[in-house]
Amino acid sequence: MTRPLSIRIDDLSGEPTRRLLALHLAGMQANTPPEHVRALDLSGLQKPQITVWTAWLGEAIAGVAALNQIAPDHGELKSFRTHPDHLRRGVAAALLDHIIGEARSRGLSRLSLETGRGAAFEPALALYRTRGFADGGAFSDYDASDFNRFLHLEL
Where do the H-state alpha helices sit in 32-153? Predict the structure, then answer.
């Protein structure tokens, strides 16, 4: 990246954020059978236990990610997406590192995520693994299927 990346809490009111989240949801629906898509829509992300961050390069949105605090010591990554114009430029890594730091500062002992299976999900899985996430069992209210997988990071 040549310009500095700015990561900030997002209230979900801006059109760039809404468009990127719509793109994320469409991508999940395109790569997973409808009954197995667990991505949150805009209203699902507006719950008090969820914090959404966006990454910006100047005035351009570069990425979005959320932390759902599902228990006092357990957080879940949600809605993790890099804007197509900014792929492979470190945006996702910066957002992930930011959320891991935030989880630690909140005193969480575990971060988890549920994601899909298949080629479309491999780049994200590779990034999660570089940060120490490991495959594990279902958590919260998720059920395991042939279309999803679960990763966990002990903090």
Answer: 42-45, 91-105, 122-130
Residues contacting residue 57 through CB under 8 Å, at least 6 positions apart:
1, 3, 4, 5, 6, 86
User: How many H-runs (helices) and E-runs (strands) does the chain carry?
Assistant: 4, 7
* Spatial distance between the Cα atoms of 94 and 6, rounded to a whole number of angstroms: 10
Domain of 131 in residue numbering reads as 5-154
Q: 31-79, pLDDT tens digit by residue?
A: 665 565 566 677 889 999 999 999 999 999 999 999 999 999 999 999 8
CATH of the domain at 13: 3.40.630.30
Q: Which amino acid is present at 15?
A: E
Whether the CB-CB separation of 68 and 49 falls below 8 Å is answered with: yes
